[in-house]
Amino acid sequence: MKWDVMDIYIETHMHISLDGIDSVIFRKKIKENKVNLEEHIRSSLRAYKSRGICAIRDGGDPFNLAPITREIAKEEGLIYKTPVQAIYKRGHYGGFIGKPIDHISEFKTVFSKIEKEKPDFIKIPLSGLMNFGAYGEVGDLAFTQEELDYIVKFAHDKELPVMVHVNTRQGVQRAIKAGVDTIEHGYYMTEEELQALKESKSIWIPTLAPLGNIYFSNDDKYEKEKGTIKKIFDEQSKNVKKAYEIGIKLAIGSDGGAYMVPHGQGFLDEVKYMHMAGIPMDELKKIGYENGIKALGITKKELKEGEIL
Fold it and tell me: Looking at the predicted structure, is the pLDDT value of residue 304 above 90?
C-alpha cells in the first residue's frame, strides 16, 4: 500500500530545537538571532505538514521554545504537543532537553516552573544515550524505581501522561513497572521485556531512524562504529517485528531533528525501517494512527479539526 499525503500521520517523537545536522552550531545560531529561530521552526513544521503529518510530539528543549512553536504550529494548522522541558537528574543525560534536579524532593518545585507554560505531558530521561563505540553502554539509570513511581503518580494525579527516554533491560523494566505512558527508544530489550510490555498499557516508540540513517548513508562521522550501529539496529528491528507479532502497542516516532534525521523526512524513514522490520504497510498506517492518537493524548475529532489535507 502506498504511503502518501492523502492519509493522516502522527509523528510521536521529534525535537524542534535540533536540525538533524549539528546541534551545537545550530543552537548557537538560533540563540543569537530570533529571526533564525522563527524561520527554523516554521520551516521544520512545514516539512511535517508537506508530508501529510498533522500532529507532532516534541521531546523537550532547554530554551523553552514551546510557546513560539505552539503559536506557529497553530498558524500552520498542526497539532503540537510538548513537555515544554524535560526533567532530568543532574549528572545524567538530559541537559540538552530540559531542567535538572539534584534530588527527587526538588521535582515538584522544578515542575511548578514548567507548569506555567502548560505542558501536555511530562518527559523523563531515565537512561543515557547509546555509546556507538561500546555495545550496550548507555550510562547509569538516573532515577530509582521509587523515584520513577513517584514521578508517574504525580503526573497522573495531574492527568498528565509520562514520556520516558530509556534503554537497557533494567531501564525498560523500571519504566513498565512505574506505569509510564510511552517508552521512547527501548533499545537492548529481550524477550522478557517484550512480554512485560505486551501486558502493560505503555506504548513503545522504537526510533529506528537515527541508527538506520547513519548506517545506510555514506556519512563518515561514525565510520568506525558502523559495525556496532548495524548490530544494534538489527536487534531493534527484530524486536519491532516481535512486538508487532505479539500485540505490543507501537507508534511511529523518528526522533526528528536528531543527527541525520531531517524533520518530516525522518518520519518517512522511520516508516520505511518499521516496514523493513516486518510490519505490513497497511498495518503501519493503522497502528501509527490509533496509537499515535493515544501517545499524543488527542481525540479523533481534534485530529480532524487540525487536519491539513
Answer: no
CB-based burial, 113-140: b 16+ in 10 Å, e otherwise? ebeeeebbbbbbbbbbbbebeeeeebee
- Give the sign of the dihedral formed by CA 215, CA 219, CA 222, CA 227: positive
Distance between CA atoms of residues 309 and 288, nearest Å: 17
The model's pLDDT over 215-252, given as tens digits with 9 standing for 90+, comes to: 999 889 999 999 999 999 999 999 999 999 999 999 99
DSSP 8-state symbol, 255: -
Burial profile 224-260: b = 16 or more Cβ within 10 angstroms, e = fewer: ebbebbeebbeebbebbebbbeeebbbbbbbbbbbbb
Residue 257 β-bridge partners: none
What's the pTM? Answer: 0.95
Q: How far apart are CA 280 and CA 286, in angstroms?
A: 10
Q: Which residues contact 78 (CB under 8 A, 6 or more apart)?
A: 45, 48, 49, 53, 54, 55, 56, 306, 308
**What DSSP designation does 299 have?**
-
Three-state DSSP at 79 gives strand
How far lies 291's CA from each of 3, 5, 226, 284, 308, in Å? 17, 19, 32, 10, 19
Cell triple for 34: 530570533
How far apart are the C-alpha atoms of 45 and 153, rounded to whole Å? 33
Smallest CA-to-CA distance from 18 within 269, 265, 263, 268 is with 263
User: Residue 289 and residue 309: Cα distance in Å, rounded?
Assistant: 15
What pLDDT is recorded for position 280?
A: 96
